[in-house]
Amino acid sequence: MSAHIVRPADLEWITRPHAPGEPARHVAELSHLAGFAHTRANIWRYDPGACGRRHRHPTQEETFVVLSGTLSMYVGEPPQRHDVPPGGLIHVAARTPLQAANHGAEELVLYAYGAPP
Asked: Contact at 8 Å (CB) between 89 and 112?
């Protein structure tokens, strides 16, 4: 098939591990649903106060598009905070340490796209 459509009802939300009482992060994996062969994508939902783990990808660059809420992205070493509003985008090069967080009072929803997968 030369085109794939992913509708909201197609999404399966997976709650990521977190400590009891800690705000949760949820991910809907899109790569397989959308038929991606050379890239990777997810939609993330961060509860208010949720924070991802600090990490780096050796070969994958990532682009994050904020759909709602405000993303606080900690990039580099030492980490520098960048706040990205709804409709905004942040691109992080491969090998760059990063950590995403939601310091706001509302849910953060973002689209994350990476290559190579």
From this structure: no
DSSP 8-state code for residue 9: G
Cα–Cα distance for residue pair 96/3, rounded to 1 Å: 32
Mean pLDDT by 10 residues, the chain (117 residues): 92 96 97 95 98 96 98 98 98 98 98 95
Nearest to 40 by CA among 51, 53, 27: 27
Q: CA-CA-CA-CA torsion for 50, 56, 59, 61, nearest 10 degrees?
A: 40
SS3 state of residue 64:
strand
What pLDDT is recorded for position 86?
A: 98
Q: Given this model, what pLDDT does residue 117 score?
A: 86
pLDDT at 1: 65
Task: Using alpha carbons only, give the angle 96, 99, 101 rounded to the nearest 5 degrees.
Answer: 155
Contacts of 23 by beta carbon, 8 Å cutoff, 6+ apart: 46, 47, 48, 49, 50, 51, 102
CB 100 within 8 A of CB 45: no
